[in-house]
Amino acid sequence: MTLERAPGSFGAAVRTALADPHMQEMLDVGTARLHEHRLVAWDSLEKTDGLRETARRIRTRTIARLDEHLDGFASAVESRGGKVAFCRTAEEANEYIVSVCRNAGTELVVKSKSMASEEIELNAALEAAGIDPVETDLGEYLLQLGGKHPAHIIAPAIELTREEVTRLLSEVEGRPVEPELRALTAAARRQLREKFLTAGVGITGANFGVAETGSIVLVTNEGNARLTSSIPRIHIALMGMERIVPTTAELAVLLQLLGRSGTGQPLTVYTTVASPKQPGDDGPDELHVVILDNGRSNLLGGDYQEMLNCIRCGACLNVCPVYRRAGGNAYGPVYSGPMGAVLVPLLVGLGNAPDLPHASSLCGACANACPVKIPLPDLLLDLRRDLVGRKIASRRERIAFSLWSIVWSRPSLYRLSTRVARLGQRIGRGRGPARAWSAGRVLPSLGKRYRDRR
Amino acid sequence: MTTKEEFLAALRMKLPADARVVDPELPSLRPERGIVLLERFIAAAEASGAHVHHRIDPELVVAGRGEDEIGVSNAAYGLADTGSVVLLAGPDEPRGRSLLPPVHVSVLEVDRLVPGLAELFAELGPDLPGSVAIVTGPSRTGPSRSADIEQVLALGVHGPGEVHVILV
């Protein structure tokens, strides 16, 4: 499965990222800017903390009755003429979506940015069925042309240079496009507009699903989700099963937080609430909502249920000192930053992503930035504990911790250990692996313990 | 008989200027309407990059442009907090008109202004049309938005790159 990460892959990817000065600069500029905009947007909002707390409670209450809300949502969509598919695995979801496209007899599908579709590798499944999926978010379109994966939830192509963009768009045009922003945007608009008008199916993700009204909520700045869900004859929305809100009243609260947290906008440019169409509307004839589990139910009823509260705003990425150096792809092809470091191991099993819980300094900036107050550092710590407890941690790490536990539970050995530590601190400083770490830091002396001073 | 002036002058003497300001923090008891919402809407819409026209002949905005270039919509509501126009899809409001042409002109009646999302959804109730489009400024990519080409703002990526709101 695409989300799985081999041990050691995070460190290797980070070394590559650190050696790439352009990527480092783009990460710096991009994340700092998104972060600053967020702070300004928060300042403009009264009682921000109250709103975050309300949002946290809304999400927690909703997830606690997820089954009931999904049931209500499906009934509301169906009673208005839409179709709902419940898919436990990526394969089921891909199969359903491919069959809808096949029945429609289309060979071209337009897509608007959806992390869930990356998660299930929908594009590969469509291509295997002879269907051409075209990403329409400008950044994702460029990445698709270049054969790359998104590196940021909100700003997927955060690392592309203007030269690369010019080359990619010129290839499609069959003639050189001027390396100037207006010309590049116009070329992309032209290329993609043609796709919108000929595609038989439009596939979107879903920022939220409203149970009461049977609606899918889509949030973009470019307007591509509104086009994708309006122009082709069939609209398929792929929704992670936790994205549900009971009514539009809860939706209003969460939308106020989503734009501010993601990009620092009070509201994104296009907020579309799409429901099965009513008579006289020029929208799509069919709406299919694909509800995806794909590992999410692993979190239900357990210690990590709160992670299902995540609204995928990206704020935790922009403040994370590890993400800001490592970049998104180090975490894997889909979810990155602190939310990815928690979510991915839970979706695929800790043993299949053992590096990710360690991809954090536990500084706490992510928890402070989170609009629904998910205690991300606590969850990362819990995951590390589970790694050790379930013997997934490396042999060396396990031996070290069992030794530590034996030594520190016996007073005599404990006393000895603190003396050895002081000695080790004097000798070890400036040598071996400790050298790089201690070179730029002043270490507090491992002073005499109370016990020794008596 | 005391005249009104005499009567009120006697009271005025007992209430010097500084005694008149009591509890200025008491929140407004009227639902926000009219001028307060209007000013907030105009400020927010302009901040989002839309051009706002108040008490102006709509013909002046569309003059000199080709028919294909401009799509005109009738906004069902306006959100004062964010400067957004709300379009409800239906026979009189096709989606393509406000989405495909490069210029979007939206006509909004001043008395259709509501403060924000909460009030909007309360007015709409649970029976929603096929599309509720909440549009806040022109289509864009860029620094504060998404960072697609070296994180520089670009307008009109997909939707209209120029948005006008005509308040009537």
Describe what this molecule looks like in 3D.
The complex is a heterodimer of chains A (454) and B (168). Chain A is of the alpha/beta class. Chain A is built from 21 helices and ten strands. Chain A is globular and about 85 Å long. Chain B is built from five helices and ten strands. Chain B has helices at 4-14, 17-20, 34-47, 58-62, 117-124, and strands spanning 51-54, 70-74, 77-79, 84-88, 103-108, 113-114, 131-135, 140-141, 154-155, 162-167. A four-stranded parallel sheet of chain B has the order 1-10-5-2. A four-stranded mixed sheet of chain B has the order 6-3-4-7. The interface between A and B is large, with 69 and 53 residues.
Radius of gyration of chain B from CA coordinates: 22 Å
Mean pLDDT of chain B: 85
β-strand percent of chain B reads 15-25%
| Low-pLDDT windows of residues of chain B | 143-147
Structural class of chain A: alpha/beta
**Tally of helical segments of chain A:** 21
Shape annotation of chain A: globular
Entry keywords:
heterodimer; A: 454 residues; alpha/beta; six-stranded parallel β-sheet; four-stranded mixed β-sheet; 21 helices; B: 168 residues; four-stranded parallel β-sheet; 5 helices; 24% strand
Secondary-structure blueprint of this entry?
The complex is a heterodimer of chains A (454) and B (168).
Chain A: H1 9-18, H2 21-43, H3 48-64, H4 66-79, E1 83-87, H5 90-104, E2 108-111, H6 115-119, H7 122-128, E3 132-135, H8 138-146, H9 162-173, H10 181-198, E4 201-204, E5 208-210, E6 215-220, H11 224-228, E7 234-240, E8 244-245, H12 248-262, E9 270-274, E10 286-292, H13 315-319, H14 323-326, H15 337-348, H16 365-369, H17 376-389, H18 395-408, H19 411-428, H20 432-439, H21 450-453
Parallel strand pairs in A: 1-10, 2-3, 2-4, 4-7, 5-8, 7-10
Antiparallel strand pairs in A: 5-6, 6-9
Chain B: H1 4-14, H2 17-20, H3 34-47, E1 51-54, H4 58-62, E2 70-74, E3 77-79, E4 84-88, E5 103-108, E6 113-114, H5 117-124, E7 131-135, E8 140-141, E9 154-155, E10 162-167
Parallel strand pairs in B: 1-10, 2-5, 3-6, 5-10
Antiparallel strand pairs in B: 3-4, 4-7, 8-9
